[in-house]
Write a structure and sequence with these properties.
Length: 247
C-alpha cells in the first residue's frame, strides 16, 4: 500500500534534454520500490520536445509566479506547491561534458533538513548563484549531478539508481547502520568567461586546482556551457566532514 504521505519526491526533467531521472525511476520501479517515492516530471513540454527549456531555464525560475506570462515561471510555482508536501526531494541532473558525480546544494550553507549521510557521493557543492533552483527555496531538497562524458550510460544509470535505492532503504529504517558521512565540501563562487580567459582550455580539469595569475581556483563543468560564453565555473574547497567532525 502506498504511503499516505510519501517521504521522497524524485524530480526528473527539470531540463527536458536530461533523461537520467526517468531512466533511474524506471529502474527503481523494476526493483519494486515504487511505493517509497513519487515522481515529478518537472518540465513536461521540454521533456517531450527533448530541449533544455521552452521559454526560460526552469532551474532558474523558482519560486515561480502563478500568473506569469512565462511558461517555466508558472510551472515553477506549480511544482513548488507539489514539492512542499514531501519530506525529502531529489532533483536528478546530468552533464554531457561532465566527468564527475556530485551533490549540489543551491544555497550558501548546509542544512540539517536533508540527510546527506545517506547519499553515497563524496563531493558536495554549495552553489548559491545563479538563483532559482527548487533547492534554493526548499532546504529539504538537493540535486544529484551525474557526468556522462566518455561514460557507459548503463553503468551511470546503475550507479544513480543504487544511490537512490540505498537512500530509500536507509531513510525507511528507524536505526540505519550504514551512513556515507565523509564528504568534501566545495563552494562555487564564480565563473571563467571565454572573453576574459587567455589560457588553454585543455589545462582546466574539473576538481583539479588551476592557477590563473594571482588566483587559484578549482574548475567545475569545464566546457559544459561554452555556447553561453562560460568556460567553467570556479570553486574553492571549504572543508571535509568525517563522522560528524569538521576538518
Amino acid at each position: 500500500m502506498k504511503n499516505k504521505i510519501p517521504k521522497l519526491l524524485i524530480i526528473c526533467s527539470t531540463h527536458g534534454d536530461e533523461k537520467i531521472g526517468l531512466e533511474v525511476v524506471k529502474q527503481l520501479k523494476s526493483n519494486g520500490l515504487e511505493s517509497f517515492f513519487d515522481i515529478l516530471i518537472a518540465n513536461p513540454r521540454a521533456n517531450e520536445k527533448n530541449v533544455r527549456y521552452i521559454e526560460k531555464d526552469l532551474n532558474r525560475s523558482y519560486p515561480g509566479e502563478k500568473n506569469s506570462d512565462i511558461y517555466e515561471e508558472r510551472l515553477a510555482f506549480k511544482n513548488l506547491e507539489i514539492a512542499k508536501k514531501y519530506q525529502y526531494i531529489i532533483d536528478i541532473h546530468e552533464a554531457d561534458e561532465g566527468r564527475d558525480d556530485f551533490i549540489i546544494i543551491p544555497r550558501k550553507k548546509m542544512s540539517n533538513k536533508f540527510p546527506l549521510e545517506f547519499i553515497d557521493l563524496k563531493r558536495v557543492l554549495l552553489w548559491p548563484d545563479p538563483k532559482g533552483p527548487i533547492g534554493s527555496v526548499l532546504e529539504n531538497s538537493i540535486e544529484l549531478e551525474f557526468g556522462s562524458k566518455n561514460r557507459d550510460r548503463g553503468e551511470m544509470i546503475e550507479k544513480a539508481t543504487t544511490i537512490i535505492k540505498n537512500f530509500i532503504v536507509l531513510t525507511s529504517k528507524e536505526q540505519p547502520k550504514i551512513s556515507y558521512l565523509r564528504k568534501d565540501i566545495y563552494f562555487v563562487y564564480g565563473k571563467v568567461e571565454i572573453s576574459n580567459f587567455s589560457g588553454e582550455i585543455k589545462e582546466l580539469v574539473d576538481f583539479e586546482e588551476y592557477n590563473e595569475g594571482n588566483e587559484k581556483f578549482i574548475p567545475l563543468l569545464t566546457g559544459q556551457y561554452l555556447k553561453s560564453g562560460i568556460i567553467c565555473y570556479k570553486m574553492e574547497k571549504q572543508y571535509r566532514t568525517i563522522a560528524g567532525k569538521l576538518k
